[in-house]
Amino acid sequence: MAEFDAIFVIDAILLLLVAVTAVAVIQLRSLFSATMLAGVYSLLMALVWSNMHALDVAFTEAAVGAGISTVLLLGALVKTGRWSKPSRPIHLPALLICVLTGGMLIYGTFDMPKFGDANAPIHTYRVPKLLDQEVGKVPHRRGPPLGHPEPDPEHPHPHDDFGGHSPNTVTSLLASYRGYDTMFETAVIFTAGISLILLLRRRRDEDLVIEQDEFDREVQS
Amino acid sequence: MSGFVDQEMRGQTFLRVVAKMLFPFILVFGVYVITHGELGPGGGFQGGVILAAAFILYGMIMGAEELERRVPRWVTDAAMALGVLLYAGTGLHNLLAGGAFLDYTMLGPDRPGDAEALGMTLVEYGVGITVCSVMITIYIQVCERAATDVGVFTRVRKERR
What we know:
CATH topology of the domain at 6-84 in chain A: Four Helix Bundle (Hemerythrin (Met), subunit A)
Largest sheet of chain B: none
Structural class of chain B: mainly alpha
Shape of chain A: extended
Number of strands of chain A: 0
Number of helices of chain A: 9
Radius of gyration of chain A: 26 Å
Oligomer: heterodimer
Helix content of chain A: 55-70%
Structural class of chain A: mainly alpha
Number of strands of chain B: 0
Distance between the termini of chain A: 72 Å
Largest sheet of chain A: none
Mean pLDDT of chain A: 77
Helix content of chain B: over 70%
Order of helices and strands of chain A: HHHHHHHHH
CATH superfamily of the domain at 6-84 in chain A: NADH-ubiquinone/plastoquinone oxidoreductase chain 6, subunit NuoJ
CATH class of the domain at 6-84 in chain A: Mainly Alpha
Radius of gyration of chain B: 19 Å
Distance between the termini of chain B: 22 Å
């Protein structure tokens, strides 16, 4: 390496830590430690994403991966116990298939454009059209929305280029361009909640009392 | 989880104080992420998860049955459906007003740009409400199931009645 590249060093350290954490999660027999390390893994991945300027992804990874998943895994842990069974010896055909699939996937990434390549298809094919689209823009007036001050070239501010188009491309894509997609994603989450209620919720308090009696009997016997 | 976490947690004054102090700040941050979804990173999904994390933290420290007392079932059940209704309703309103489904411009035909921003904001609120209430429901249900299987949740309820 000709010159010192700080971003590369940070990336290398983070990816090394990610790999170490992933191996540790698989190897550990204490399920509690494995759950905590899975949370650490998500936090490290969030750092990698934010290092790649994918802030929305980093946000989701930190909130969902490190936050909610860890709590839910802990909840499952209470039901299952704290230690995993001793692992069986390595199953050779399974290992072979895993290594082959992994190798093929890595080989596939060689065809992908280099990270940050300005000539990558995503920068030339569709996104420019999206960014230039007239949908949602006021055709006859390109100034700031009513009530906002006129733009000051010395101090640009997000609302200066609002012009009726959401400044956050990601949200614009998710809520407007792919509105149907996001709506049915929400519907999927809603369905998950409903199914959970149907499966897990005790419907009447009497159910609970009966189980309490059964529990007492079990304790006595 | 309330079975074995709570009995240890209830004695932890320090954890309880810190959790109670953090609670409003996490809520404010969650609301910020939802309401600024169209301006910066984040949005309905992430904000909803952060809001739910505040309630789940409360549930972990104070006990899931205490959380269920503060956030009753009918609230989360209604909010779950309300979020999807808000999302689909925004699209449907636009359809009935003469536009395309989820096109948003009919929310303010004079200023289609602002109308789109308004539509996106409403839609993000819908996603946030649904995600938040579903996450709280998942937590409460998993806890309740874990606890009733060992009889702890029931005893607390019996005492209250």
